[in-house]
Amino acid sequence: xxxxxxxxxxxxxxxxxxxxxxxxxxxxxxxxxxxxxxxxxxxxxxxxxxxxxxxxxxxxxxxxxxxxxxxxxxxxxxxxxxxxxxxxxxxxxxxxxxxxxxxxxxxxxxxxxxxxxxxxxxxxxxxxxxxxxxxxxxxxxxxxxxxxxxxxxxxxxxxxxxxx
Length: 164
Known about the structure:
Blueprint: H1 3-31, H2 43-48, H3 63-71, H4 85-97, H5 103-106, H6 118-123
């Protein structure tokens, strides 16, 4: 066998192995549900719910939690967040359709609060307790205080800034 033919075959084998490796990595990433990406919010959800707080990404709570939250809008954590029935139905349906999957779907946090979910507590365990009560933060539910792109559903750890 000629040297040129042998080199060409080796190069072809390396390229094939590289492509197969890239396909395998892509497949693994497609199956990785540990860091779900935010679904662009339903405009009515962004407008109505985002008027008082960020329109929390739907994948942060399981469908059962969203169902309960939407059913209690007249007393939504101490506020009347009542919406007209068609808007309520549209938002509730969208939230359930885009709710948490995998392990997050199995957990219904206390009081259906995102901040009381196991994953939230685990992700924020290094935040000093005093930080939550700072005037610039106010509460753990004020994601935008530390996550500057929270309104866009981006919670990248590199973009975190805990205010003083």
